[in-house]
């Protein structure tokens, strides 16, 4: 009987339980068993996630898997980064987790680094400066709550703890705290002290692929579940997405395109030099001792907000079709401007930005969406050039994975502007990477290289080549615009 693997992948906008099995042709077969919405809501003065709802959805999905005839499964959990749950002395959460988009950290970097030079912090951690990194969230955390806290658990670690009773801190997601020391590969004592947190308040650090334990008997009594062995995978969803990216050789970059666009490349040693620091690139830890040298780009969050403002009357593919009927590059937008992190009305924010910069104001849905896609493609192309410069290399291929890999228009614009081959897919690379780490952990797959080959042989990947003479000079004009207008995410 072949092993069955359940990948629980919860992004900022949606979650899903995907069942992965290896068929006789040594291909990974992926089946969506359960999907649910995610999102934060205002509660007790902050934007909060509903973590109990997410756990209930996981158990509901597992019941569907049992009902489909699976008696025994492996399971891995990955979610978005930086956010955490505070667990009290009684082992229960003290509050629902606050979202990284909450405004409590809007000025946290300036406050925390007033007596701690950013260059020093970057040398220690190699992590990009995003004001919602865990370090700054803890700096702004409610002191009374922190004093009652026995354990600080990152979201996926907390879910694994609730399901199995076992607490660990998995390194790929822990690195996004900006509290891990690159040299010692442990929590940095100075940074813990800076936010009044003790080493003991984090469970032991473990690498991706470490077995966690069985789902506890109390859940088995309350829900009709398969016997479930939980494995701690690369619990940062982007880390799982990178594992699930079928890159070949050494000259490939990845773009994990979902709520965020995470553009970067996989390194075996961190790159925390001056150029990387100046360009705010990060060295998030990857699976198997790798580093994810990447940059956070605002991503399709902007499209998600637009879709919501239109009352969800358009599907994402309909919005993409409307965009395709419009001319590209009608206005330049620094999509990483902090004003787009969590505005009250994204459409108005985009329109106001265009007014303030004396540009054509997009009005119709198609114009708005084309403005978003055009500027995402330009931003991606600009960052590919920066990656080449920082790493002194030439990345020929950009593997685009995640929901955004479905957008052929955006894939093609990106290929042409960046002058690279785009390989699009799998769109569920995060779930695939989650399952692959489980398969490597059980020995069903030999290693990461063999797994990526298997992925390439299992999923329909689409290639996009640069279209000569298209958009000549646009990227240079965009870069000049950015140089005059950039107020990046910091
Ligand atoms: N067919 C499509 N046409 C256009 N856009 C699409 C299509 N399918 C997905 N998308 C885009 O992909 C996004 C969702 O990507 P994905 O499913 O990777 O995100 P997620 O995993 O839910 O969230 P996160 O990025 O936080 O992990 C949507 O917001 C949408 O913009
Ligand atoms: C806040 C993080 O940067 C974000 O979660 C990103 O890393 C991610 O996980 C996108 O899916
Ligand atoms: Mg995702």
From TrEMBL:
<feature type="binding site">
    <location>
        <position position="304"/>
    </location>
    <ligand>
        <name>ATP</name>
    </ligand>
</feature>
<feature type="active site" description="Proton acceptor">
    <location>
        <position position="237"/>
    </location>
</feature>
<keyword id="KW-0067">ATP-binding</keyword>
<keyword id="KW-0808">Transferase</keyword>
<comment type="similarity">
    <text>Belongs to the rhamnulokinase family.</text>
</comment>
<dbReference type="Pfam" id="PF00370">
    <property type="entry name" value="FGGY_N"/>
</dbReference>
<feature type="domain" description="Carbohydrate kinase FGGY C-terminal">
    <location>
        <begin position="254"/>
        <end position="441"/>
    </location>
</feature>
<dbReference type="Pfam" id="PF02782">
    <property type="entry name" value="FGGY_C"/>
</dbReference>
<comment type="similarity">
    <text>Belongs to the FGGY kinase family.</text>
</comment>
<dbReference type="InterPro" id="IPR018485">
    <property type="entry name" value="FGGY_C"/>
</dbReference>
<protein>
    <recommendedName>
        <fullName>Rhamnulokinase</fullName>
        <ecNumber>2.7.1.5</ecNumber>
    </recommendedName>
</protein>
<feature type="binding site">
    <location>
        <position position="81"/>
    </location>
    <ligand>
        <name>substrate</name>
    </ligand>
</feature>
<comment type="function">
    <text>Involved in the catabolism of L-rhamnose (6-deoxy-L-mannose). Catalyzes the transfer of the gamma-phosphate group from ATP to the 1-hydroxyl group of L-rhamnulose to yield L-rhamnulose 1-phosphate.</text>
</comment>
<comment type="pathway">
    <text>Carbohydrate degradation; L-rhamnose degradation; glycerone phosphate from L-rhamnose: step 2/3.</text>
</comment>
<feature type="domain" description="Carbohydrate kinase FGGY N-terminal">
    <location>
        <begin position="5"/>
        <end position="244"/>
    </location>
</feature>
<dbReference type="InterPro" id="IPR013449">
    <property type="entry name" value="Rhamnulokinase"/>
</dbReference>
<feature type="binding site">
    <location>
        <begin position="236"/>
        <end position="238"/>
    </location>
    <ligand>
        <name>substrate</name>
    </ligand>
</feature>
<dbReference type="InterPro" id="IPR050406">
    <property type="entry name" value="FGGY_Carb_Kinase"/>
</dbReference>
<dbReference type="InterPro" id="IPR018484">
    <property type="entry name" value="FGGY_N"/>
</dbReference>
<keyword id="KW-0684">Rhamnose metabolism</keyword>
<feature type="binding site">
    <location>
        <position position="296"/>
    </location>
    <ligand>
        <name>substrate</name>
    </ligand>
</feature>
<keyword id="KW-0460">Magnesium</keyword>
<feature type="binding site">
    <location>
        <position position="403"/>
    </location>
    <ligand>
        <name>ATP</name>
    </ligand>
</feature>
<feature type="binding site">
    <location>
        <begin position="12"/>
        <end position="16"/>
    </location>
    <ligand>
        <name>ATP</name>
    </ligand>
</feature>
<feature type="binding site">
    <location>
        <position position="259"/>
    </location>
    <ligand>
        <name>ATP</name>
    </ligand>
</feature>
<keyword id="KW-0418">Kinase</keyword>
<keyword id="KW-0547">Nucleotide-binding</keyword>
<dbReference type="InterPro" id="IPR043129">
    <property type="entry name" value="ATPase_NBD"/>
</dbReference>
<dbReference type="GO" id="GO:0008993">
    <property type="term" value="F:rhamnulokinase activity"/>
</dbReference>
């Amino acid at each position: 009987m072949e092993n069955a693997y359940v990948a629980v992948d919860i992004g900022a906008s949606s979650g899903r339980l995907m069942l992965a099995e290896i068929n006789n042709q040594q291909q990974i077969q992926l089946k969506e068993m359960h999907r649910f919405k995610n999102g934060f809501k205002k509660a007790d003065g902050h934007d909060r996630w509903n973590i109990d709802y997410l756990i209930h959805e996981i158990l509901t999905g597992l019941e569907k898997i049992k009902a489909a005839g699976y008696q025994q499964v492996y399971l891995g959990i990955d979610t978005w980064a930086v956010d955490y749950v505070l667990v009290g002395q009684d082992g229960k959460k003290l509050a629902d987790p606050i979202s990284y988009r909450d405004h409590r950290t809007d000025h946290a970097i300036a406050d925390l680094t007033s007596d701690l030079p950013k260059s020093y912090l970057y040398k220690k951690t190699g992590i990009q400066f995003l004001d919602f990194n865990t370090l700054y969230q803890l700096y702004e955390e409610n002191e009374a709550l922190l004093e009652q806290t026995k354990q600080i658990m990152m979201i996926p670690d907390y879910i694994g703890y609730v399901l199995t009773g076992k607490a660990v801190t998995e390194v790929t997601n822990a690195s996004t705290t900006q509290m891990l020391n690159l040299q010692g590969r442990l929590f940095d004592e100075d940074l813990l002290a800076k936010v009044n947190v003790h080493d003991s308040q984090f469970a032991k650090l473990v690498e991706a692929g470490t077995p966690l334990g069985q789902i506890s008997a109390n859940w088995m009594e309350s829900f009709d579940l398969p016997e479930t062995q939980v494995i701690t995978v690369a619990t940062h969803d982007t880390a799982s997405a990178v594992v699930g990216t079928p890159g070949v050789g050494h000259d490939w970059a990845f773009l994990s395109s979902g709520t965020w666009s995470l553009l970067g490349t996989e390194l075996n040693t961190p790159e925390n030099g001056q150029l990387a620091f100046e360009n705010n690139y990060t060295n998030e830890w990857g699976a198997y001792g790798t580093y994810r040298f990447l940059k956070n780009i605002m991503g399709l969050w902007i499209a998600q907000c637009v879709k919501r403002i239109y009352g969800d009357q358009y599907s994402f593919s309909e919005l993409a079709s409307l965009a395709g009927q419009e001319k590209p590059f009608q206005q330049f937008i620094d999509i990483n401007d902090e004003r787009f992190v969590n505005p009250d009305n994204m459409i108005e924010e985009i329109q106001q930005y265009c007014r303030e910069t004396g540009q054509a104001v997009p009005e119709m849905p198609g114009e708005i969406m084309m403005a978003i896609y055009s500027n995402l493609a330009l931003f991606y192309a600009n960052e590919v050039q920066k990656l080449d410069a920082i790493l002194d290399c030439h990345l020929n291929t950009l593997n685009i994975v995640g929901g955004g890999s479905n957008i052929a228009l955006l894939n093609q614009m990106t290929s042409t502007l960046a002058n690279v081959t785009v390989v699009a897919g799998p769109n569920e690379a995060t779930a695939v990477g989650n399952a692959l780490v489980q398969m490597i952990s059980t020995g069903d797959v030999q290693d990461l290289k063999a797994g990526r080959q298997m992925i390439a042989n299992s999923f329909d990947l689409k290639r996009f080549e640069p279209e000569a003479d298209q958009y000549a000079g646009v990227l240079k004009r965009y870069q000049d615009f950015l140089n005059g207008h950039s107020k990046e995410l910091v």
